[in-house]
Q: What sequence folds into this?
């Protein structure tokens, strides 16, 4: 059971969980983001273990690269020195914690009973090529739609970020 | 006899006809009523004579089906029923005739006759019933007829109260009857008298159950026949027109209780406890009502208490296994008591008061009514050669043979009382000085006197159908073919007859001394308290209104508080709860998406946990 | 071939998802809330990829879906941040509990 | 001959009346009243025709109609009836009698509506809609249709009470709506659970499926679940019936609504509760229902006594009648609680009988109110002097109500107690006190109104008018008919009863 793969999994998973827990427990926003980068990267490792090399690459590119950077910009552009938690919301935290715990327990109950036999698969062979074939044949329409979505998001973000400037400009 | 069912239909026709078209006929509606009751009478007589020569006839059809059980309705002509038919239709016809004169000038004359028709119909139906259910059916209808007639003068508050009281008091008894009847039904599987008797005789019913049902049914009889402790309605019922008192509250309906016990006699004889209960209640009622009758001043009330007392007598007879004695007295009593009431009505008609203190010396003025009243008085007092003598003698013998010396003693004392207060009544009304204010006193029209004469004749001679001297025809006939009813005539010691005679004569003599000759003080009771107690009828009414009525009212008010405060309070509480919940919910609406989603998520988590724990499906 | 059972990956995904959920529901800084949501999306992606390998019929579709999810997530992050900037300009705060415009 | 259109026509004919009414200007009082009355007639005639059709020995199934209506999900390809809601109307003995009763009382209530003083047009339109709802409730063959009609009755009632009632009409209307709305909500839950679990809402099919686990295509319904559903049904219909302590809304409605509406309300709408309990409670969950026998019997006795004792101290005649309705519905429960033929038959008889009697009494209330402007007992008295016929009928109605033999009240009361005495003699013995109390409070109230000293201002009042004779005579005749010859009711009920008894295993 203690195959090399398993050890690798345990290590990566540990890093991911620790990153998550740090996200929750650190008080400095910047530190939180850094902790999260660890998680994102280890998730990429998990993808590798799951024979999804291309996804792992994309994960690092998008999450560890793009999104984290955007978020860091977001933090820095806004007031981030305020790290104190809102007073009086501890009851809510506790309730949410209980809820999350229950939720996790139920799902774990489901996962625990799950017994998926491993099938022969060829995912690890020419993974990127397989993805490319699927994307450009079977999923070509969603793929194109995604590009539309990204374009919309791009324009939308610009509009949202700019519009008030103009308004403020008008006001002034 | 096959067409005996038609007998009750004549009065029913009279009822419906007069109800619908009575207004047009005014006082001639009396002829409609008289004609139709006369038809009933003739037919009843035919049935009676036919019954002498042929066996019991019974015919039934299905009335209602409940599952496998079929409830039947029909009619039965046996000895008792045939006899009762004649008694009822006869008295009813006579009262119809009498009322033509008595109710003259009454605005609601047709209504009165319609009610009389309804009552007669119900009573005739009652005595023809072959099963308990049908008996109950008519039993209640009779009660309604009585109720309507008591409340005939509806604008009088007393009449209203009396009618209500009569209905409710008898209703209490009826519920007993209903329960007893239903319990018996589930034991026997039928309401038929025959089936019940057969089951009882075969020992299919547990002894305890027999006693229970018998006593419950007897409670029905107690209510209807004004036995202690449900007797108070009967004297109050005298608020009704006097002919009604004669018909319903003397001769027929109140005797229905006795009839019921007689009709179910085999059931009662199967339980000694039940019989003893009947005898004891009867004896208590007899002495108790008689003692109240000693001091009453209202002519009709004296007669009413005497009725109660006599009914107690009949119950005593039945309770002592004296079937014949009870039925015999029922018959003679129907005649002489109806006579007395009609005569009293005639007196009231003449002097327009019911208070005997205000009467006196009427003998000379009412040359017909006076002697007739005397005949009735002699008969009820048990003076030899009159009908009451023979029937009372039978009862005393039955009580003696029944082995209850104390009950026998009570019966003798009650007989003494009866003779005393009846002659007190007679002397106070007819002898002595005539009051100056009574000038326009005149005899009643012949329409009223004729029925009385018929009844007087019967009051004298009806006793001779069952005497120790001229044969016990009635008794033998009544029990013919039915051993469960006991012997036709019980030979009792001869001294009982002598005792009865002596007692009644003594009562008359004492009464004469006090009220006739006035040689004894009228304050014969001496102690005022005793007089007061008797005059106020042992405060039974007061006792009831202090206890039962008060408790019922109190309980009702208590429930009303519960309803208005507790039940409504719960409703208000629920409303308040919902409102609070709403306010809480409103507070939750902070406008923060995070809070909303937190709440939503917690809800989801709770649901998931519940589903996981219960396995998804309840 | 692999010694790691599917449930291990799923469990990891579950833990990450729960962490993300907790963060999204309790953190006060809006940026962190957004980030937490990204973490939840990631957890879902892990599931997708896991089932792509361990499903009844292993195929590439799961991975393709994960890719789609990522691109949508990227777009979402961009738009979310843009909204955040717009709000920040008006309110001078990124605290989520001060965003209660829905209340009135 | 295809008779399947008859029921549709019967149920929806009043709608035609509504359409006609819509074109009549609101000022033409006489025309509106006439049209309103006429619109109830075809239904009455049709239901009589159905009754005679039945009497002629033909099957009631001739009238069943079924049209495909709504299909949920894609199950239609597997089985056309699976998760489908049909438009199905049909009658059995019991529902036929209820339809007949409804159409009779609706026509008579339309006659009684002559006492309405304003907004005739709106009144009659709502009135007719209410009639459609009531007829539909009894004719519906499946739960969803039943529920739709059930709700249709609520809305017109709300407005009829709230607009044409007396002083506290709004409060009465709201408490009516809230209680009944909650009741329907609970009912809806039951219906939906059954529908989701079995894929059908047809009552007969449901009765089969629920009780035969092997026929259940999906997860079986556990016994606990059945109990829960039955209990929910009890609450839903208990509000309607009403069962203590869910009764307070009904008092307000009785007192505040216009008497013609109370005739319908007390005569028919309350009966929907009993109808539902018998049809669904007993029909679908017989085994569970059986175990509730004692509970029902005790609830019945409580209802009976509670209503009776409270009626005894009321000051308003309408309140007396309201509590008397509670008391009489106790008898229905007693009969149901007995769980034997006598009891259930008694309960159904009581449903019909009380419908007739309370309609009669409330009609007379409206007659008296129109002439005296009061229903307070202390202000009334000696009415018999001025209007002897109406007073006589009031007395007769009271007699019928307190269970006088020869009238319908007796038969039902007798059978209910007959049934209960077999099963639970002690409970029944306690309940028997109610018979006495009924006499006590009814006589107190009725004699208080009719007997006694006549109030001076009541001397000049007129007795029953010609129009007013119609309802009084009709109702009285029916009451006496059932009382004297109960087989007119028991014969049609026979098949229904047999089916119920079969379900109860007795």
A:
């Amino acid at each position: 059971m203690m195959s090399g793969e398993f050890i690798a999994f345990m290590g990566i998973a540990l890093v991911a969980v620790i990153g998550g827990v740090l996200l929750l427990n650190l008080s400095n926003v910047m530190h939180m983001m850094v902790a999260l980068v660890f998680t994102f990267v280890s998730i990429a490792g998990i993808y590798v273990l799951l024979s999804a090399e291309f996804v792992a690459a994309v994960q690092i590119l998008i999450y560890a690269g793009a999104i984290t950077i955007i978020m860091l910009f977001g933090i820095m552009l806004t007031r981030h020195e305020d790290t104190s938690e809102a007073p009086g919301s501890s009851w809510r935290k506790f309730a949410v914690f209980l809820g999350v715990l229950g939720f996790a327990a139920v799902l774990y109950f489901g996962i625990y009973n799950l017994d998926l036999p491993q099938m022969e698969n060829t995912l690890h062979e020419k993974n990127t090529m397989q993805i490319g074939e699927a994307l450009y044949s079977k999923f070509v329409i969603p793929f194109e739609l995604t590009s539309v979505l990204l374009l919309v998001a791009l324009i939308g973000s610009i509009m949202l970020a700019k519009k008030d400037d103009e308004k403020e400009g008008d006001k002034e | 006899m096959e067409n005996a069912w038609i007998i009750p239909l004549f009065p029913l026709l009279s009822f419906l006809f007069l109800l619908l078209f009575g207004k047009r006929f005014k006082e001639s509606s009396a002829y409609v009523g008289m004609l139709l009751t006369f038809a009933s009478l003739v037919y009843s007589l035919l049935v009676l004579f036919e019954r002498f020569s042929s066996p019991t006839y019974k015919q039934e059809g299905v009335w209602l089906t409940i599952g496998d059980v079929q409830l039947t309705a029909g009619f039965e002509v046996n000895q008792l029923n045939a006899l009762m038919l004649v008694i009822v239709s006869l008295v009813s016809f006579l009262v119809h005739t009498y009322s033509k004169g008595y109710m003259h000038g009454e605005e609601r004359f047709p209504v009165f006759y319609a009610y009389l028709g309804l009552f007669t119909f119900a009573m005739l139906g009652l005595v023809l019933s072959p099963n308990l259910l049908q008996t109950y059916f008519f039993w209640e209808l009779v009660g309604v007829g009585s109720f309507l007639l008591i409340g005939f003068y509806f604008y009088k508050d007393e009449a209203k109260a009396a009618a209500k009281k009569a209905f409710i008091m008898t209703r209490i008894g009826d519920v007993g009857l209903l329960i007893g009847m239903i319990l018996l039904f589930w034991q026997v599987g039928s309401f038929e008298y025959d089936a019940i008797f057969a089951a009882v005789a075969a020992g299919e019913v547990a002894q305890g159950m027999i006693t229970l049902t018998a006593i419950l049914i007897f409670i029905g009889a107690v209510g209807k026949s004004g036995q202690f402790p449900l007797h108070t309605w009967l004297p109050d019922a005298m608020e009704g027109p006097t002919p009604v008192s004669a018909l319903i509250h003397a001769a027929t309906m109140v005797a229905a209780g006795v009839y019921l016990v007689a009709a179910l006699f085999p059931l009662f004889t199967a339980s000694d406890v039940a019989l003893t209960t009947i005898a004891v209640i009867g004896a208590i009622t007899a002495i108790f009502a008689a003692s109240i009758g000693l001091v009453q001043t209202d002519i009709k009330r004296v007669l009413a208490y005497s009725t109660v007392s006599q009914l107690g007598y009949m119950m005593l007879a039945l309770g002592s296994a004296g079937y014949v004695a009870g039925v015999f007295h029922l018959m003679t009593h129907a005649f002489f008591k109806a006579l007395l009431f009609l005569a009293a009505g005639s007196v009231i008609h003449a002097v327009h008061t019911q208070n005997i203190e205000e009467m006196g010396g009427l003998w000379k003025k009412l040359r017909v009514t006076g002697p007739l009243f005397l005949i009735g008085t002699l008969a009820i007092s048990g003076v030899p050669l009159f009908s009451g003598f023979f029937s009372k003698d039978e009862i005393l013998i039955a009580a003696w043979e029944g082995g209850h010396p104390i009950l026998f003693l009570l019966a003798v004392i009650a007989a003494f009382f009866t003779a005393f207060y009846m002659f007190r009544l007679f002397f106070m009304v007819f002898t002595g000085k005539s009051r100056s204010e009574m000038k326009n006193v005149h005899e009643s029209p012949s329409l009223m006197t004729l029925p009385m004469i018929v009844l007087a004749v019967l009051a004298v001679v009806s006793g001779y159908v069952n005497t120790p001297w001229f044969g016990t025809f009635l008794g033998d006939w009544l029990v013919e073919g039915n051993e469960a009813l006991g012997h036709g005539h019980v030979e009792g010691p001869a001294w009982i007859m002598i005792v009865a005679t002596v007692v009644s004569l003594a009562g008359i003599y004492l009464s004469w001394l006090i009220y006739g000759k006035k040689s004894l003080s009228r304050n014969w009771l001496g102690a005022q308290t005793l007089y007061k107690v008797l005059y106020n009828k042992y405060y039974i009414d007061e006792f009831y209104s202090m206890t039962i009525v008060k408790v019922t009212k109190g309980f009702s008010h208590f429930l009303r508080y519960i309803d208005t405060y507790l039940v409504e309070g719960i409703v208000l509480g629920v409303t308040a709860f919902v409102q609070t919940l709403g306010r809480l919910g409103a507070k939750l609406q902070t406008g923060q998406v995070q809070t909303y989603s937190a709440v939503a998520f917690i809800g989801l988590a709770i649901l998931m946990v519940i589903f996981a724990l219960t396995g998804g499906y309840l | 071939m692999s010694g790691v059972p599917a449930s291990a990956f799923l469990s990891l995904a579950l833990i990450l998802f729960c962490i993300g959920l907790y963060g999204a529901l309790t953190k006060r800084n809006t940026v962190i809330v957004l980030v937490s949501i990204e973490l939840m999306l990631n957890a879902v992606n892990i599931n997708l990829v896991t089932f792509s390998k361990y499903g009844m019929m292993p195929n590439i579709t799961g991975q393709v879906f994960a890719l789609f999810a990522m691109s949508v997530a990227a777009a979402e992050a961009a738009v979310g941040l843009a909204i955040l900037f717009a709000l920040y300009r008006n309110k001078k705060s990124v605290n989520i509990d001060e965003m209660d415009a829905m209340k009135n | 001959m295809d008779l399947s259109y008859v029921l549709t026509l019967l149920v929806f004919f009043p709608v035609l009346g509504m359409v006609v009414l819509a074109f009549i200007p609101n000022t033409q009082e006489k025309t509106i009243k006439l049209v309103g009355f006429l619109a109830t007639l075809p239904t009455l005639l049709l239901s009589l025709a159905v009754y005679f059709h039945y009497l002629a020995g033909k099957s009631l199934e001739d009238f069943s109609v079924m049209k495909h209506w709504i299909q949920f999900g894609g199950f239609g390809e597997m089985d056309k009836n699976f998760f489908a809601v049909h438009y199905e109307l049909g009658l059995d003995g019991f529902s036929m009698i209820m339809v007949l009763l409804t159409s009779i009382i609706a026509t008579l209530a339309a006659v009684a509506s002559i006492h309405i003083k304003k907004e005739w047009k709106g009144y009659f339109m709502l009135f007719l809609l209410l009639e459609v709802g009531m007829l539909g409730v009894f004719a519906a063959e499946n739960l969803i249709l039943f529920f739709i009609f059930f709700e249709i009755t609520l809305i017109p009632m709300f407005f009829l009470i709230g607009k044409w009632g007396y002083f506290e009409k709004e409060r009465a209307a709201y408490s009516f709506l809230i209680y009944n709305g909650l009741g329907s909500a609970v009912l809806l839950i039951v219906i939906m659970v059954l529908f989701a679990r079995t894929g059908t809402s047809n009552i007969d099919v449901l009765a089969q499926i629920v009780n035969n686990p092997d026929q259940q295509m999906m997860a079986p319904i556990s016994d606990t679940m059945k109990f829960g559903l039955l209990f929910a049904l009890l609450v839903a219909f208990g509000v309607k019936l009403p069962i203590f302590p869910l009764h307070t809304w009904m008092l307000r409605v009785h007192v505040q609504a216009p008497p013609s509406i109370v005739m319908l309300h007390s005569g028919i709408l309350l009966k929907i509760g009993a109808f539902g309990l018998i049809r669904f409670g007993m029909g679908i969950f017989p085994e569970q229902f059986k175990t509730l026998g004692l509970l029902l019997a005790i609830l019945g006795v409580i209802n009976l006594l509670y209503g009776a004792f409270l009626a005894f101290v009321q000051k308003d005649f309408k309140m007396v009648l309201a509590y008397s309705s509670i008391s009489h519905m106790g008898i229905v429960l007693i009969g149901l609680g007995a769980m034997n033929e006598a009891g259930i038959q008694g309960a159904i008889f009581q449903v019909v009988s009380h419908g007739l009697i309370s309609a009669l009494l409330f009609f007379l209330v409206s007659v008296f109110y129109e002439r005296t402007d009061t229903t307070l007992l202390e202000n009334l008295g000696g009415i018999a002097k001025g209007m002897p016929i109406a007073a006589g009928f009031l007395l007769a109605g009271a007699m019928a109500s307190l269970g006088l033999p020869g009238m319908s009240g007796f038969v039902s009361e007798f059978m209910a107690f007959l049934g209960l005495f077999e099963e639970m003699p002690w409970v029944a013995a306690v309940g028997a006190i109610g018979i006495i109390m009924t006499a006590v409070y009814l006589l107190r109230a009725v004699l208080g109104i009719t007997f006694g000293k006549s109030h001076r201002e009541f001397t000049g009042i007129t007795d029953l008018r010609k129009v007013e004779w119609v309802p009084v005579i009709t109702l009285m005749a029916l009451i006496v008919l059932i009382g004297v010859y109960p087989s007119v009711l028991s014969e049609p009920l026979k098949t229904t009863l047999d089916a119920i008894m079969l379900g109860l295993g007795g």
About this structure: Chain B has a mean pLDDT of 82. The radius of gyration of chain B is 30 Å.
